[in-house]
Amino acid sequence: MNVKSIRYLLASVLVSAVAATTTLAQPAPKMKMTTAVPPGIASPEKVETRLGMLNFFDGFPDKATVEKVYDNLDFQRAVQAYLLALAPVNMAGLREGLLVVGPANVTVPTFEANMNARSLFLTANATTPYTWIWINLHGGPLVAEVPPMTLGMIDDFWFKYVTDIGIVGPDKGKGGKYLLLPPGYTGQVPEGYRVVRVPTFESILVWRNMPVKGDIRPAIESLHRNTRIYPLSQAANPPSNTFVNVSDRDFCTVAPADYRFWELLDYVVQNEPVESLDPVTLGFFASIGIEKGKPFSPDVRMKKILTEAAAVGDATVRTITYQSRIPEAFYYPNSTWRQWLGGYTFQKQTGVAYLDAAAFFYFYATGVTPAMEAKMVGQGSQYAVGLWDSQGKPLDGGKTYRLHVLPNAPAKDFWSAIVYDNQTRSMLQTDQDFPQASSLDKGLVVNQDGSVDVYFGPNAPSGMEHNWIQTIPGKGWNMLFRLYGPLEPWFDKTWKLSEIELVK
Question: Which of 67, 277, 466, 491, by CA, is between 20 and 30 Å from 233?
């Protein structure tokens, strides 16, 4: 080979190498009808991304690129579907737990004593006994007779607020008859009822039974005497209900976070009207194979993607909950106390969904009502979520902490501090029946100035056993500080909740 041939060969190799490494598409030849294409429109031949190298021939993806992109698209949509589905799957978990107790409509499960840590419920309280009734309207309208002096609500199967009942509801705490109408009901609506049109066939009717001067027995007697659930068609001769005392019961209403999450979501989608939810959310569900009227049967590839998406979705919502990056998520400047955001409709502004706020709430809590977050001086309740100590560090069950509750806590009724498990978001299970301290506690030690010190740790400080909530070494925890009947100093922040301090 002569020198000229060698030079030609080297030049050819160099040109080929440059062509192979360039990320820009080759310019098209100038033709009669050529228009200059502005930058950013044409696709490069090669694009380096987190998915790896994506290859295109004049903007057309090759087979490997198509596979990578569709796997990624399905995974992205699955993770977003997971976050959007936290609400209905939360409800589906609640449904499963309650139906273990007895059938819908007929059964009235009630904690006739305060709920203790044995039952797994998302951030339930241990100061006012609950009644939980699973409603199914597939058989037609139902009458729900509720007792006086309750505080509760109806939420639909998408976990959207329908109405309050009781003290802040239309009956104003007097009790009465509510007529629950199913989706699309066009029949006659008789008089004498408080009519509620429920957007979904299945829903939850839940209320707190309010103690009388600290005694729950009158409320439970009133519950048995005044509560009835029956079909409207049997209003002339209502059948009896089954009252089940679920106090100290070992059962779970918390939904799973693994692949079974998708199966619970499919149940909700199949059983509820398309009109009861927005098209975009249903579109996310449909894009991963969960669509009303069609079987949910993912192939091996899709099942693998959904399994991973559930794991990443759970990791995502735990991050959103326990390590928020939103400054307005906190009650005070430089504070660790978290608050609900977006109201009971979870909107950043009118007509704009607050996605992180909804994910946090539906992962952490149960029961959507304005009474849990709206400014209602002297009524309802307010919540502050404690996830870190004053230094911004996670709460460690092997250490001792103190919460100093300043005098004149702005609660017309009472305040409480309850500890929860970071894993289950249910009451922390220790040797204590009730992992809480409350201003209702008779043995609570009150300081001379009216303040109260609440301690958290594996061992009680000497003399403070009634002010102590047990924690477990090697296990994290979080807490809710609740105000029942919150007063103006809470809302205008002239009374401030102290930080959780590590005791050294």
Answer: 277
CA R_g for the chain: 29
Are residue 340 and residue 462 in the same domain, yes or no?
Answer: yes
Chosen domain end from 245, 273, 289: 245
Query: Crossing angle, helix 279-287 and helix 63-84, to 10 degrees?
Result: 130
The confidence score (pLDDT) of residue 215 equals 86
User: Can you list the positions of beta strands (E) in 188-239?
Assistant: 194-197, 202-209, 228-231
pLDDT tens profile 86-108: 999 999 999 999 999 999 999 99
Average pLDDT for residues 260-267, to the nearest whole number? 98
Residues 438, 462 within the same domain: yes
Q: What is the mean pLDDT of residues 237-256?
A: 96
In a domain, 210, yes or no: yes
Indicate if 201 and 239 belong to the same structural domain.
yes
**Do both 84 and 188 map to the same domain?**
no
Tokens standing for residue 233: 């068609």
Residue finishing a domain among 245, 272, 287: 245
At 302, is the pLDDT very low, low, confident or very high (cuts 50, 70, 90)?
very high
CATH number of domain containing 415: 2.60.120.600
Distance separating alpha carbons of residues 80 and 70, to the nearest angstrom:
15
Tell me the C-alpha distance between 107 and 210, whole Å.
Answer: 21
User: What is the rounded distance in angstroms from the CA atom of residue 461 to the CA atom of residue 437?
Assistant: 14
Q: How, if at all, do strands 436-438 and 381-386 pair?
A: unpaired
Q: Please enumerate in sequence order all residues whose Cβ is within 8 A of that of 63, keeping only pairs 6 or more positions apart, or say none.
A: none
Distances from the Cα of 213 to the Cα of 170, 217, 219, 310, 440, angstroms: 24, 10, 11, 46, 10
* Structure-token pair, residue 94: 């609640």
